[in-house]
Amino acid sequence: MRPYRFRDLSRGLLPALFAALVPALAAAAPPPSSAAPAAAVAHPQVELKTSMGDIVIELFPDKAPKTVANFLQYVKDGFYDGTVFHRVIPGFLIQGGLYTRQLQPKRTRPPIPDEANNGLSNLRGTVAAARGPDPDSATAQFFINVVDNPRLDYVGNQSGMTWGYAVFGKVVKGMDVVDKIDNLPTGPQGPFIGDVPRPLPVIESARVIGEAANPAAEPVSPVTGQVPASTPPSKKKSGAKH
Predict the structure, then answer these.
(1) Domain count along the chain
(2) What is the 3-class SS of the chain, one letter each residue?
């Protein structure tokens, strides 16, 4: 019998084995992914035309979806038109969105769940939802931080004070207007015992002006970092009022 030689194996058996393996390898290979990369969430912008100048706010719906949706609904309803910044604490914040020129509150929709536990920090220029002692009491009012206020960030669910205030946007144009409002003299007026600026800065109109082509960097909490924590439990206690 003629012995097999290596040359014979290489010419006969190996090509056959390779031919058999190719379909098997092709079948075992994972199919190319057809999923498109997730698109970045658009950041809507809202322009506040005030009696002291224009302020443009960029919103973060990916971080505070309920708060942003609530704010945008008030904007689209024309709710903020004719309201004022009724509270100014120099070197701290300016607050508005509820009271008329006569310092009468407007009727609001039901309050929304608090989203302070979203990893965003109350830094200079950020916009947050104002609320009462109950964290889930925010409606139409908002405030703009004039300085870095990390003490207003979420740190725990022990009380309304530790719960913090939900950042949902950032001023991208008009911080000079915010600073002008912050520098107004304040005092008692109407139902308030203090902190009312004179003259009252009026929000003449609020409107959505589009989506940011180059979204602003979101503020990072020095406590929790950028990654949003899980939704906190519903047990809450009363705390400080904004």
Answers:
(1) 1
(2) CCCCCHHHHHHCHHHHHHHHHHHHHHHHCCCCCCCCCCCCCCCEEEEEEECCEEEEEEECCCCCHHHHHHHHHHHHCCCCCCEEEEEEECCCEEEECCECCCCCECCCCCCECCCCCCCCCCCCCEEEECCCCCHHHECCCEEEECCCCHHHCCCCCCCHHHHCCCEEEEEEECHHHHHHHHCCCEEEECCEEEEEECCCCEEEEEEEEEECCCCCCCCCECCCECCCCCCCCCCCCCCCCC
